[in-house]
Design brief:
This protein is 26% helix and 25% strand. The chain is α/β, with parallel strands linked by helices. The strands form six sheets. An eight-stranded parallel beta barrel has the order 3-4-7-8-9-10-11-12, surrounded by six helices. Helix 6 (222-231) packs across helix 8 and helix 8 packs parallel to helix 10 (325-340). The chain starts with a strand and ends with a strand. Bound molecules: alpha-L-arabinofuranose (AHR).
């Protein structure tokens, strides 16, 4: 099978906002307790943070981390997680039916985020709480000093404001499962009033309003329109959430369909962009609302196990999906879709980061291991820099149960002018055929191939618990203006070129 792409560095989709490679830590399962925080672990530092986890997170190069939820958020009292640890209350977390000891809270998260070189994407509870608690939290975090709450922060050890810029106004407030779920009208009013109050405290904030928690929710569309109608002037982003499952393991054509789910993601993004722009036109506004895709991933492997978990434990094994090779292929494809939409998706969070539907797993009595999905995420987050170029690829396509015209060659190119580097991410979705991939650089001159890797050859149902998965070298030929390589069936590939100045 043949496939090709043309590299045209003037043909830019958008500069890449690195926050596209964000992730998410929720106070859920073992994300925090025995995940990032385990004071009795041999690798724990003086804050109780596992340094083996810190190292793995740094390898992923995640620039932004959403916190503290998720469904957990909608019943959370942020004040429980500040002050001396011995005085913090143990609470029932009604979202996940766990015990929350609050030994890890706001200050701990801020210190940990700093250690992994990430900025926070903080969220305020609009389920059981509202305007005052949200404004108080902004004052506590961002006001310099001289008020009750800012001085309380200083007393608790943070002399300087946290200066948190990006905030989510609640979480999945359209979802019937959410504590304090709201109708579109109720949420729209509360979000707008909360945004106003938060901005009175700090007018530099960037605010994210909740979009639908899924495209499948019956209120999808009407929700976006109602929320934007009310909040347009006071928010900057609308959120999207999407998780993918597998339909039928016994049907071999189902893999084609699974790998086509990037089409679903693309349709979802384009649909929400259209809604944002329709409201913009109706309001005759000059302001554009961009998207924060603040939860996305594959999530289904742990569903059955989760129904067996005993309630009211601290840090139970919940949502511990063990990802396989086909999941890594889909994650690569979804990342490329986010990049192709980088003109409107400015923030995205792989949900989540450690233990809970996560690329990084910990053993409470042992070390850290990397899931299959770790590898494509790490490569895109590290190498997808600069600008995204318009896709000029060609290949044959297939139809699946849900999708038509899915390209066997899924590819996206980024260009970093500062380092004169072109990076080509490419996936071959064909189950049996190798794809001869021709890259045409036109007038551009290739100085050298910096690096080429492939991730392939594993059983699609294999996972990486034993650590056998690794990136392998990808043989490629280059001349002055061209490169050629072979993409193996079901493979994820990355080629990085240095251009001549
Ligand atoms: O990421 C897991 C859960 O998925 C989050 O708590 C919630 O926001 C979503 O439904």
């Amino acid at each position: 099978m043949q496939g090709s792409t043309k590299i045209q560095i003037q043909d830019v989709v958008a500069p890449i906002d690195r926050r596209l490679y964000g992730s998410f830590i929720e106070q859920l399962g073992r994300a925090v307790y025995t995940g990032i925080y385990q004071p009795d672990h041999p690798t724990a530092d003086s804050d109780g943070f596992r340094t083996d986890v810190i190292d793995a997170v740094k390898t992923l190069n995640v620039p932004l981390i959403r916190y503290p939820g998720g469904n957990f958020l909608s019943q959370y009292r942020w004040e429980d997680g500040i002050g001396p640890k011995s005085q913090r209350p143990v609470r029932l977390d009604l979202a996940w039916r766990e015990l929350e000891t609050n030994q890890f809270g706001l200050h701990e998260f801020m210190r940990w985020a700093d250690k992994v070189n990430a900025v926070p994407n903080m969220a305020v509870n609009l389920g059981t709480r509202g305007i005052q608690a949200a404004a108080d939290l902004v004052e506590y975090c961002n006001f310099p000093k001289g008020t009750y709450l800012s001085d309380l922060r200083r007393q608790n050890g943070a002399e300087h404001p946290f200066a948190i810029k990006t905030w989510c106004l609640g979480n999945e407030m359209d979802g019937p499962w959410e504590i304090g779920a709201k109708s579109a009208g109720e949420y729209a009013h509360l979000a707008n009033e909360t945004a106003k109050a938060m901005r009175r405290v700090d007018d530099t904030l960037e605010l994210v309003a909740c979009g639908s928690s899924s495209m499948d929710n019956p209120t999808f569309g009407n929700w976006e329109e109602t929320v934007l109608d009310a909040c347009y002037d006071n928010v900057d982003y609308l959120s999207l959430h999407r998780y993918y499952g597998y339909y039928n393991d016994d049907d071999p054509t189902e893999l084609d369909n699974f790998l086509g789910k990037n089409h679903d993601l693309d349709d979802f993004i384009k649909g929400v962009v259209a809604m944002c722009d329709a409201v913009k036109a109706r309001k005759r506004s000059t302001k554009t609302i961009n998207l924060s895709f603040d939860e996305w991933n594959v999530w289904y492997h742990s569903n059955d196990a989760d129904t067996q978990v005993t309630p009211w434990q601290v840090g139970p094994h919940l949502l511990e999906d063990i990802y396989n090779f086909e999941d890594a292929l889909l994650i690569g494809s979804l990342l490329m879709t986010l990049l192709r939409n980088a003109d409107r998706v400015k923030i995205a969070c792989l949900a989540q980061l450690v233990n809970v539907i996560a690329p990084i797993m910990t053993d409470e009595n042992g070390g850290v291991w990397r899931q299959s999905i770790f590898y494509p995420f790490m490569q895109v987050a590290n190498y997808g820099q600069g600008v995204v170029l318009t896709d000029h690829s060609t290949s044959s396509t297939y139809n699946s149960r849900e999708f038509t015209d899915v390209a066997y060659l899924d590819t996206v190119t980024t260009y970093d002018a500062a380092t004169q580097t072109v990076t080509v991410f490419a996936e071959n979705k064909h189950q049996t055929e190798t794809l001869d991939f021709a890259l045409n650089f036109g007038e551009l001159t290739i100085d050298r191939l910096l690096d080429a890797t492939q991730f392939y050859g594993y059983d699609v149902k294999a996972d990486n618990r034993d650590g056998h998965m690794q990136l392998q070298p990808l043989p490629a030929r280059t001349d002055t203006h061209h490169a050629n390589t072979k993409l193996q069936p079901l493979s994820w590939n990355v080629l990085r070129f240095k251009l001549q100045n």
